[in-house]
Structures are given as C-alpha cells and as structure tokens.
Amino acid sequence: MINEKIEKKEFITLHVQQCGFAVYGMGPGTARCTFHGQPLDKYLIDLRKKMLHTRHHLNALWNRMNKENPDDPQTVKFIEARLKTGWWALSIAMELTPLQGQCVDGPTNPLRFFFIQRLEELFTKCFAAAWMFGNVEQQIAGRRGLIIDFQSNGGVHLETGEPGEGLRATLFTDFDAHFTPNNREEFVYKKFFGLLHTLATIVEEQHPKCRQEFARALRFMLVHHFGRKDITSPAKTVMLEKIVSLANHLDPVNMTTIPESEVVVKK
C-alpha cells in the first residue's frame, strides 16, 4: 500500500526552495540589460504578473480536469492550454538564461532565482501533465518538451557533448513535475520511469560522454528522492529496480544496487 494521505495538491506553486545565500531584489545588473528591445527590468515586472495569472488559471483547470479520460473534450482542451503555456515558458526561460551573467548580484543569481526557476516549474509541470494525462499526440508533445529541456536547456553541452551544469537539476525538476502535483499512483511511477528511459536512450545514442553523470544522477535520486520509507508500493519497488538496472547499464564500472536501508518491501 501507499502510506500517504490522498489529498488535493496545487499544480503550480511558483515557490523556489531557498538554498545558500538569501536573494533580495534583482540587483543593479538588470537595469543595464535589454530583452528583445525593451528594458529587462520593465519586462520582468510584466512577466511576474503573467506568471501569477498563469498559476491561478492553470490551478483552476487542474481541479476541474478529468484525469481518467484523455479523450474527454474538456481534458483535451485543458491539456492544450498546458502545452501552450509549456512552450511559452520554455522559450522565455531559454531566452533569459544567457542574461544571467549580467544580472548576478554578488554571490546570488536573482534572475534565475526569481524568474527562470519559476518558468522551469511552469513548463516541466505542463509538459509532464500532457505526458501523463493527454491523448496520444499530446503525450508526444509533452514528452518532446521535456526532452528539449534536457538537451538544450542545461542537461548537455551540445558543442562538446559533455554533461551540462543543469543535468541533475533537470532530472530533479522532472521528478518534481511528476510527483508533486499527483499522489503516488502506479501510473505516475510508470510514466516517470518512461521519461527516464527515454532520456537515458538519448544519452546513450547521442551524448555518450554524459553516460556516467546521468547514471550518477539516477543513483542519487534513488536515495534522496525515493528514500521515504513511509511510502511503499509494488509500483515503487519495480521502478526502483528498473532505475538501478538503467544506471548500471549506462555506467557498468560503478555497479550498484538499491541501498539496503532504502529497499521497499512489496506489500
């Protein structure tokens, strides 16, 4: 059984976990930047308002969506709205990312903290919702959005083929997008592993220099993202076993098993 209270959860939060130095304000660099012909600081004011409006809109749709029938006309409509938001948020995040270096404030990165990370929550949750609850074409579009995020938004240095600084962060954001808005039903475990398997295949075939780092990220995830002993189910156990097998396939030099303290007993 899954020892977790079943409850309604917010789809979009726009919360960012504070880790490290506290971030206050946007710093002086923002005022010196332009974004597609307009002052960046003024653009960000409008972007903040749009993100807050989008959060309210998507959360309202989430509570009304029929998650059991991907062909329900209302579900198709709701997923289309999420895909539209996902492509918008991914595009803006990727366009803002090169400006981070000009906007750093001491040891902090306010542009990333206040805007890019929140856009990442928007597009990963929107794409993941399409991948999990959409019809066949919507699932394809949602999964493709998550793939593009991994390959082109920090997971891989496309010029060199080396792991990008955002490889682990991308996988962990994908984890959050699958599990945070949903309770841990069997299909969520299946869909999340389906994405991991797709990304691992892409790494193996197109970015072989990333194999070891991808495997390390999977092993880290086993302990730090799936280590709660109060959440147990056959679906979780099967997924953990598959993740271990995937990591060992990509990085056979550092073969591993599920840590004994984290083994989930089938019930």
Largest sheet: 2 strands, antiparallel
Distance between the termini: 6 Å
SS elements, strand count? 2
Query: Given the helix and strand composition, which structural class is it?
Result: mainly alpha
Regions with little confidence, pLDDT below 50 for 5+ residues: 1-7, 261-267
Write down the Rg. 19 Å
Dominant shape: globular
Strand content: under 5%
- Helical coverage, percent range: 55-70%
Order of helices and strands: EEHHHHHHHHH
- Average pLDDT, to the nearest integer? 89
> What is the count of DSSP helices, taking H or I runs of 4+ residues?
9
Lateral arrangement of strands in the main beta sheet: 1-2
Mind explaining what this structure looks like?
With 267 residues, the protein is mainly alpha-helical. Helix 7 runs parallel beside helix 9. The N terminus and C terminus are likely disordered. The radius of gyration is 19 Å and the shape is globular.
Quickly describe the structure:
This protein is mainly α. The chain has helices spanning 40-64, 73-96, 100-103, 110-133, 136-152, 167-179, 186-206, 211-224, 234-250; strands at residues 34-35, 38-39.
Highlighted features:
single chain, 267 residues, mainly alpha, two-stranded antiparallel sheet, 60% helix, globular, disordered N terminus, disordered C terminus
